[in-house]
Each structure stands twice: as C-alpha cells, then as structure tokens.
C-alpha cells in the first residue's frame, strides 16, 4: 500500500500555468502608442510620384545657365584684363662683335593678379550659390527664379551644405561618360541625372515640396 503525499500548502488551489505563446516561444508585440495607430515604417517620402511631377530637363538646363552666367562674367572680365595687360620686355646683350636683343611678351603682374582675384571670386560665388544657398533652401539663384528645388528623395527636404557640395562634385560622373549623365532626365522616370541617383536627390517644384 503506497503512501499518499499531500501537496504543499496552497498548491492545490493554484490555477494551471498559461499556455505557451504562439510562434515557438516568442512574446506578443507591444501595444501601439496612444491613439491606436502604429507609426509607419521609415522610408522614402516621395515614392509614387508621376514623371510629370519632377522638374523637366529643359527647366534644369535653363537654371544651370542662369547659375553660371555670373561665373562667366567674372572670369571673362579677369581674362580681358589679363589679355590687355600684355607687355614686352627686351634684354640687350652686347658683345665685342655683336649686339643681341632678346624680347619676351607676356601679361603683366597686375593682369595676373586680377585674373587670380576673378577666379577666386567665381569659386566663392559657386560655393555660396550651389553649396550654401542650394543646400539650406533647396534652390540656387537659377532654381529660385524657375521655382524648383533639389531635395532628398528620402526626406523631401534640402540636403544641407556638405551634401550639396558633394552633389556638385558627383556631376563629374555625368561628365565622365561624354556628358550623357546630364541627359538622363530626358528618359529617366524621376528625371534624375547620375549624380542625383548617387546622392538620392530629385528636383521638384517649390509648390510640390511644400506639400511633402
């Protein structure tokens, strides 16, 4: 006859343990935040736009011309001063039997200095216009006049000074393949150049970016 061992006190009335969670040991997901809606997953905010929503190629070309006109004017003035400062310097070498004269023609020191100042001014303008102004507002001078912006494809916002400068450097890829990269907006669904694809940027009208 076996002895019956009574259960420890209080164990006879304990409820059975809960069933194991579904999915092989996982825990149910946490409840959504207040309001009952879970936040959307992060990702590009400009997906699904029609090609017509992006800035046309010809408009981008016009903005490029406007942006680079001041550069052409500044460098052109410096070049004219350089060319008009050409001077001739002659050296005479007298020997017992002959008199030799050697002359050289070249720009003056003033002309060279003016050209360097013009080049630095042009570079400063490009950094301000295509780096700082475009990076912080989305629009260079030309883009402002034609009412469109360069924005990040992922945020819909301007990309900032550093990335805007890097984007201009990335245009070297567009030029490296016989400038075909600049023509990509003619057939690309998002009207992007290769530099745009590298930097994940798109060109949209100012009204469109305000809605994003």
Automatic annotation (TrEMBL):
<dbReference type="InterPro" id="IPR010432">
    <property type="entry name" value="RDD"/>
</dbReference>
<keyword id="KW-0472">Membrane</keyword>
<keyword id="KW-1133">Transmembrane helix</keyword>
<dbReference type="Pfam" id="PF06271">
    <property type="entry name" value="RDD"/>
</dbReference>
<dbReference type="InterPro" id="IPR051791">
    <property type="entry name" value="Pra-immunoreactive"/>
</dbReference>
<protein>
    <recommendedName>
        <fullName>RDD domain-containing protein</fullName>
    </recommendedName>
</protein>
<feature type="transmembrane region" description="Helical">
    <location>
        <begin position="61"/>
        <end position="82"/>
    </location>
</feature>
<feature type="transmembrane region" description="Helical">
    <location>
        <begin position="102"/>
        <end position="128"/>
    </location>
</feature>
<keyword id="KW-1003">Cell membrane</keyword>
<keyword id="KW-0812">Transmembrane</keyword>
<feature type="domain" description="RDD">
    <location>
        <begin position="55"/>
        <end position="199"/>
    </location>
</feature>
<feature type="region of interest" description="Disordered">
    <location>
        <begin position="1"/>
        <end position="42"/>
    </location>
</feature>
<dbReference type="GO" id="GO:0005886">
    <property type="term" value="C:plasma membrane"/>
</dbReference>
